């Protein structure tokens, strides 16, 4: 799933490439992906792209003076920028992985696509991003909080730190991948309880969050949209590296699997050398 750094980079790429151009056509292939009906998609044609930004993991493309295309790419969604489209013909409903196509006045544009059979990509045409339920519920951006606000937000939720870090109502922008990286840098178990974290541990976690996310943004911004996924994978220390050596201590990176996701960690760096049990088989070992 694209997280804060990738969405920030996509917004930067659109600011560089698309801002200033006028939308020639706004085409919807997957009607389940477009979650709003007023304004209608036809209202986008003729509007100029004036800016692009993000709200947590939501991409926000500003159209004209008061319209926003807000997109949550979900687990398998992506933005593909085209210098030119192969055909001028409008998209047909159900055109493969393409959910939405935005054609611009210079012949370029972008597709919002989603792989797989479980379709979760969501696009909203709204006059105010706060009209999008997911945006309205967001906590403060993970890179915009002070140390004290970070501590207050983390301690506002009782539970395991991994789950609290990815709770978008607590802090916006952190997902499964970068939470693994943050906890590795902070040398903290993913199942440490927020209610038991010391002030020193909170400070370490805050600094790890800022360093991991800032470094990822720095590496991502300036990359073409097509290169961002590879850049993300290349920068990972433990996430999606099960069975490989930890780059810090050389121990084997381990995994805990859940029904629809998994987490990765280093036992030596994070859990005192003690492997965590897989929740599918037994209770967690803390």
TrEMBL record:
It comes from the Bacteria. Its cofactor is Zn(2+). It catalyses: Hydrolysis of DNA containing ring-opened 7-methylguanine residues, releasing 2,6-diamino-4-hydroxy-5-(N-methyl)formamidopyrimidine. GO terms for molecular function: 8-oxo-7,8-dihydroguanine DNA N-glycosylase activity; damaged DNA binding; DNA-(apurinic or apyrimidinic site) endonuclease activity; lyase activity; zinc ion binding. Keywords: DNA damage, DNA repair, DNA-binding, Glycosidase, Hydrolase, Lyase, Metal-binding, Multifunctional enzyme, Zinc, Zinc-finger. Residues 2-94 form the Formamidopyrimidine-DNA glycosylase catalytic domain. InterPro entries: FPG_cat, FPG_N, H2TH_FPG, Ribosomal_uS13-like_H2TH, Znf_DNA_glyclase/AP_lyase, Znf_FPG/IleRS. One of its GO terms (biological process) is base-excision repair. Residues 237-271 form the FPG-type domain. Pfam families: Fapy_DNA_glyco (PF01149), H2TH (PF06831), zf-FPG_IleRS (PF06827). Belongs to the FPG family. This is Formamidopyrimidine-DNA glycosylase. It comes from Winogradskya consettensis.
């Amino acid at each position: 799933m694209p997280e804060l750094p990738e969405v920030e980079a996509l917004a930067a790429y659109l600011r560089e490439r698309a801002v200033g151009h006028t939308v020639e056509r706004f085409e919807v292939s997957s009607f389940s992906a477009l979650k709003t009906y007023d304004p209608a998609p036809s209202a986008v044609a003729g509007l100029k792209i004036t800016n692009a930004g993000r709200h947590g993991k939501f991409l926000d493309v500003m159209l004209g003076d008061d319209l926003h295309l807000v997109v949550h790419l979900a687990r398998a969604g992506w933005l593909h920028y085209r210098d030119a489209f192969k055909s001028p013909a409008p998209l047909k409903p159900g055109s493969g992985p393409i959910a939405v196509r935005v054609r611009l006045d210079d012949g370029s544009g972008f597709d919002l696509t989603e792989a797989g059979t479980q379709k979760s990509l969501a696009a909203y045409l709204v006059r105010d991003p706060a009209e999008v339920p997911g945006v309205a519920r967001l906590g403060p951006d993970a890179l915009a909080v002070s140390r004290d606000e970070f501590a207050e937000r983390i301690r506002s939720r009782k539970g395991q730190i991994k789950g609290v870090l990815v709770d978008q109502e607590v802090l916006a922008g952190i997902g499964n991948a970068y939470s693994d990286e943050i906890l590795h840098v902070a040398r903290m178990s993913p199942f440490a309880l927020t209610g038991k974290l010391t002030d020193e541990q909170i400070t370490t976690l805050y600094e790890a969050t800022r360093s991991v996310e800032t470094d990822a943004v720095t590496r991502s911004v300036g990359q073409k949209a097509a290169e961002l996924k590879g850049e993300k994978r290349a920068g990972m220390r433990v996430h999606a590296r099960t069975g490989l050596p930890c780059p810090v201590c050389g121990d084997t990176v381990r995994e805990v699997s859940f029904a629809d996701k998994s987490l990765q960690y280093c036992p030596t760096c994070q859990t005192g050398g003690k492997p965590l049990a897989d929740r599918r088989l037994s209770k967690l070992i803390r």
